[in-house]
Amino acid sequence: MTAGLMMHEQCLPIVEETVGELAQCWEGQSPTATIEQAVEAFGESLVLACSFGSENVVLIDLLTRVWPEARALFIDTGYHFAETLELKDRILERYPRLRLEVAKPLLTVEEQQAHYGERLYEHQPDQCCALRKVEPLNRALRPYKAWMTGMRREQAHTRTGLGVVQWDARRGMVKFNPLAHWTDRQIWTYIFKHQLPYNPLHDQGYPSIGCSPATCTAAAVAGADSRSGRWQGKAKTECGLHL
Ligand code: SF4
After folding, report:
1. What is the mean pLDDT of the chain?
2. Whose CA is nearest to atom 6 of ligand 1?
3. Rama region for 169: left / alpha / beta (φ>0; ψ in -120 to 50; rest)
4. Which atom of ligand 1 lies nearest, measured to the CA of 121?
5. Within a domain: residue 225?
6. Any idea what the CATH number is for the domain that residue 196 is in?
């Protein structure tokens, strides 16, 4: 499965007690080195959580160079932009060996609206995210021992302490963030250099793309961090997947 995989000197197992030390050791190493270590340690027990944002298309490209049959997970909230779903199809065409699992909420959008009202995302976004993102992700992650994300420190003030490897205490599993230290410029340089497909909404002022209601995803505020367009006007800054 890992034809291009370099064998790493792995003196420490990657477990709850060691992730802090490993994060320090790995700080500044290339994303590919972190990906190789993650794949080497966890293999089929590792999955990439993917929302098809700019970081995710970079990570899919990097990960499939190491492991062409990589496992990935997409949460289909039922509220995605058409552009996001089209990008998903383009990515699957470009990486036909990628094994993408689509996780869905327990309730359809119609069932949720019948039960909680038309615009739960507007009135109670935390509850909407809990139903449509957090629960499906937690359920889909259950078979795995480690997951990987495209999170970066630069994305938001809540992410400045992000390590390249962490212990996800809530789920009892290891979490890899190989791009933690990458800048926006590095992401876009990589996308253009390798001519990766990306969401056209990025060109319309949306650096961070979530669900389509205007209260959930808007264009970013000039000079603010890249997640400033998410849940604008509300204290909410995260969907709850990464708390
Ligand atoms: S981002 Fe908005 S629509 Fe999507 S799950 Fe959260 S509150 Fe609901």
Report:
1. 90
2. 129
3. alpha
4. 7
5. no
6. 3.40.50.620
CA distance 81 to 26: 36
- Which residue has the least CA distance to atom 4 on ligand 1? 211
Count of domains forming the chain: 1
Is residue 102 in a domain? yes
- How many CA atoms, within 13 angstroms, populate the side-chain half-sphere of residue 225? 13
Give the residue-averaged pLDDT of 121-150: 96
User: Which residues are marked as active site?
Assistant: 239
Nearest partner of 234 among 157, 117, 218, 205, judged by Cα: 218
Rounded Cα gap, residues 128 and 70, in angstroms: 30
pLDDT per residue as tens digits for the range 169-200: 999 999 999 999 999 999 999 999 999 999 99
54 SS3 class: helix
pLDDT of residue 11: 67
193: CA distance to ligand 1 center in Å? 33
Is residue 242 situated within a structural domain? no
- Domain span at residue 153 reads 19-204
| Number of residues in the chain | 243
> Mind spelling out the 3-state secondary structure of 65-84?
HHCCCCEEEEECCCCECHHH
pTM for the model: 0.89
Atom of ligand 1 nearest to the CA of 230: 1
Is it the case that residue 22 has pLDDT exceeding 60?
Answer: yes
